[in-house]
Amino acid sequence: MRARGERKEAGSWVKFRLLMWKNFVQQLRHPVQTAAELLLPVLTMSLVLVLRSQIDPEVLETRTYPPIPAHTLNYSVTVLGGMNLTRMSMAFSPENAVLRDVVSSATTKLLLKNMRDQVLPIIEALPIEIPPGLVNSSQVYEIVKLFVDENVVTGYNSSAAMRGIYAEEEATRRVIAGIEFDDSLREITELPLDLSYALRFPERPRLNSFFMTGGRTWRTDNVFPMFEVPGPRFPYSWEGGNDPGYVNEMFIALQHMISSELVSEVAGVNLDFDVHIQRYPHPAYIMDLAKEALQFLFPSFIMISFSYTAINIIRSVTVEKEMQLKETMKIMGLPTWLHWMAWFFKQFIYLLIASVLILVILKVNWFTTEEGFSDYAVFTNTPWTVLFFFLTLYLTCTIFFCFMISGFFSKASTAALFGGVIWFLTYIPAFLLAMDVNMSTSLQAVTCLMLNSAMSYGFQLLLARESTGGMQWGDFMTSPATDSSRFVFGHVVIMMALNCVLYMLIALYLEQVLPGPYGTPKPWYFFVQRQFWCSSKTTHDIGTDNSDTSSLTKESDPTDLPIGVKIQNLKKVYGSNVAVNNLSLNIYDDQITVLLGHNGAGKSTTISMLTGNVDITSGSVTVAGYDIEKQTSSARSHIGLCPQHNVLFNELTVKEHLQFFSRLKGFSGKELDEEIETLIEKLELQEKRDYQSAGLSGGQKRRLGVGVALCGAAKVVLLDEPTSGMDPASRRALWDLLQREKKGRSMILTTHFMDEADILGDRVAIMADGRLQCVGSPYFLKRHYGVGYTLVVVKKEDFRLDTCTELINRYIPGTVVKEDRGTEVTYSMTNEYSHVFESMLRDLEAKADEINFKNYGLLATTLEDVFMSVGTDVVATSDVDDNTTVSSSADTLAFEYDSLEKLDGTGYGDEKGIRLICQHVVAIWMKLFLVLTRSWLILLLQVLVSLVQIIATLGVMQYVISMTEHIQRRELSLAEGFAGTETLVSFKGLSPTSTGSLAKAAYESIFVTANNPTMEITVVDNTPIDEYYLERTDDVSAMAVLRHSLLIGATFDDHSATAWFSNFGYHDVAMSLAAVHAALLRAVNPAANLTVYNHPLEANYVNQNDMQTMVAFLSMQLASGIGSSLSIVSAVFIMFYIKVGCTCAS
To answer: Where is the ABC transporter domain (predicted)?
Structure first.
């Protein structure tokens, strides 16, 4: 067997494997918990499969759409939107004859053309005669224009004056829109060549509701939907649908007529040029509505899947801090970084198994449709490597998140409770803000600091890309969800990687400032202190050293024993308080040194400095030849520790405990087996060798704790009250064990049992007020501090003190009364007269009746007398006030005895019936009140979490309410924010001098001279543009790219044009029409330019339907927030009752 002190220190790899073994053994000893952690994600994902199986993907054929005249009005707005065309009006600014003529002519032509196209065919079907050319006659035009000019068109002096047109709700049913020109045009007599105007429709389109669109229904601050659907948006609507509804809301018709009239006015003639709008066709595609639903449901399933695992990680890590296991392992040579690394890899392996099972569920093609479509899974198109990468990143982040949360708590039950609450709270930002597509990149990045919110965004983006070919490795930084935010999957990945670093840094920081009840906290600013960055030792200036070592009572040190621990001028200062002052002490091998001292004497601080747990202010400590500050790891590898409380792993057996700590000290193989067997036999735990420590009795746990300190041939053994909780027989057996095991070791023992210190202590050191007062063998201290013997005489009522004192003085001259209190009188006697004690006591017994006493006793000086004497001397000398007195133990005992005598039960009765029940209720409420007030941290967290949740809910409500403020103006062109887009242009038999030919050339020039040089114009020859588009988008991967880059196009012939739009973006149709009009204007005047804006106008009224919907939505959010907060409050109260049950207090 290896000699003590001759050792090979275990390397980091050995310690890491040992920790992994310990962690896995602990995990496997909880089979139900282990099974739940692995199966809960599988079961939750199985529910996803069930939901997925309810809706089969459907293969839809190629969809084409017809062209429609740009001036077409959708009369459904008169029914659904409440418009009254008989009282219709149009507003414009600024008031000017030229502009009024443009607006009146445009409105008149809009009415007449729609009458010709939609109303006249109905009238012609009636059995009445209609004069030919009625609608197209100039007379009818002039009559209608006059009516429009006088009754429909209203001019305002400025754009500011026009903003009040929707001051009343009724106005939205009467005023179609406002046409806002630049205020500088108020005095013009002819139109300038650089033209621009904004159409000011109501902020909420008339056909849309608040709940459907989230408030900002014109989407002027967005280009694409945040979450895109497979296939076309509104596949059955030739006009593009109701989000935002450019055609249905009459925006396109009005835009076309105003722009056409401006072109005619610049040209100087009535330009007879028809314009149509037409949606690009869409190739055959797979409609998978299940994935649209899963975009919002799937993140919730993932979050729930790992909630149980996250709570268990938080609880398991905090248990080791609560039970002092972490600090003990650290003291016995385990680096902190290895502790965290072992916990990480253990949890990562389990989560990796769960993630692989989840990946199988998500990627296997489980289903086949009736049409035989078998390539069908939850994630069909996204590669399994991308899914595995993101899922692994999320689970890694989860582990670090749990480490961080565990750092805030010292109790495992509290950590598990609030950790679970915080876990769900991190999902709230993504849940509440899911409807808002207008969040900026910075705001989304901030919400991604919340673990589950980042996960939610990531999976939503993955599912959104599923419908367009899947998220490939090269797509992480592409395919923006919205033009304004451009928040992509790569941003989520970056934020989650950043979270991993941030969470671990916070965990390491909390480990220093909140180490738990057994660690020593550092100041919150420790990381800015010089000693944190500099490894060199720093000695603090603490002023003049007033310590007086001349009063130290010290026996000569042994000269034939090696020194195990050398303490030199040790000092520790906390602020202005000197906890340990100039302590110098040697601890020798083959000896047990007992360290005694009152509470606050500096014992715990000294022990903490010996183990390297507390930084030394000045001085030095050498353990087994290693400097504890400079060679901490080597010094700790020689330390064995038995703390005051049982520090054992509940799941490990007796044998496994000894095996773990012996291997930690470097033992292995046969040597390890011999060490374990020897210790088990010495500890008398043979029958309990395979019992888990949780099943041992209190005394057996203390013996095992001492065995842990002794195992591994520890050279320096620290024993903090090792026999507390033991029965007398076990105490005696442990004393014998320590006496045998001290050979080759330096043992330091603290105890409150003076007999234990007297028997075990080879040397006793007594501290008081941070200073070492005396050190030496028990015999030396008793001889130095003791008076030899004390005679105690128990008096009767008529005790004759003078006679008794005179008798004693005959044998021992000069003896005086030491104390005369109560029924006892005491005398102090020196050792030099011990030979006359027998004669004196016989004489005293013979004269008992004369002196009148009951009994007597002769006591030798004990170590307790020495301890009390040293403590009293220190207090007396440290008192500045001379009037301060020190009460003796006899005074205190007499006072307590008198007080106890008063507890004779008088004044108390036996309550019965309702009075007894009321008394019980009051007592229970008092207990609950005391528990709550003394658990102030839990109470504070309970209140704070509830307040934060309610405030967050109210904040989201306020955010939703304010979403209609500061509505953004959008330019209807590709000139800004559309880098890399492509535009198609085609023609049909154009003559060189026709308006269509000139417009085509001008259309091409718009994109050649655009601000963004990356725009492309593609001229399609000999092929219809719709067929060319289908050829380009036939492949799914090509469609995924082109849906964001090929948005508009145009086809020209001599007398008409068709504005093509994809409808994947919100504003495609209006942008395409604006580009055609700009080309027409350049065709008639190459120097001219036309820009159109969509600038919704804020309504100054409260729509009752919108308000009711909004109130219902916000009420639901508030009820959800309050309900969640109350659940937290309930959980906290339940926790106290669970603790009562666990402690058997009930």
So the answer is: 565-794
